[in-house]
Specification:
Low-confidence stretches: none
Distance between the termini: 42 Å
Organism: Tursiops truncatus
Protein name: WD repeat domain 62
CATH topology: Neuraminidase
Pfam families: ANAPC4_WD40
Shape: globular
CATH class: Mainly Beta
Strand content: over 45%
Number of helices: 0
InterPro entries: Apc4-like_WD40_dom, Quinoprotein_ADH-like_sf, WD40/YVTN_repeat-like_dom_sf, WD40_rpt, WDR62
Number of domains: 1
Structural class: mainly beta
């Protein structure tokens, strides 16, 4: 099975690398590079491993094809007009994704249509982590509060 590494960062780049076996061990070779116009804070891959969702400073979620690095979708990851997306997490079914924004809001978004299906406030500090349960019935969030 192919091993792939995808990374993003504050340098506004996404790097797609594939593992290649060589005589001196395993090496990751860059296959695609995407340069965005916004800082990239977090990413998560869907259950099929075909798409990676990226949380962006401009409050958008950008979805890329993992095989060719092409952007498939871009939609609003926060309903507010302030702040940056800090976290993104795709549920185990691949149906929804959750985002956290620096305005302390959490949004649940339909992965395919980009429609916001729920928005929540409740933390008094930014959300630093979140995860759907395996049965997709609960979203657990972590914050400095």
């Amino acid at each position: 099975k192919d091993i792939q590494m995808i990374s993003c960062g504050a340098d506004k780049s996404i790097y797609f690398r594939s593992a290649q076996q060589a005589s001196d061990g395993l090496h990751f070779v860059r296959t695609h590079h995407v340069a965005e116009k916004t800082t990239l804070y977090d990413m998560d891959i869907d259950i099929t491993q075909k798409y990676v969702a990226v949380a962006c400073q401009d409050r958008n979620v950008r979805v890329y094809n993992t095989m060719n690095g092409k952007q498939k979708k871009c939609y609003k990851g926060s309903q507010g007009d302030e702040g940056s997306l800090l976290k993104v997490h795709v549920d185990p079914s691949g149906t929804f994704l959750a985002t956290s924004c620096s305005d302390k809001s959490i949004s649940v978004i339909d992965f395919y249509s980009g429609e916001c299906v729920a928005k929540m406030f409740g933390h008094s500090e930014i959300v630093t982590g979140m995860k759907f349960t395996y049965d997709c019935r609960h979203l657990i969030t972590v914050s400095g509060d």
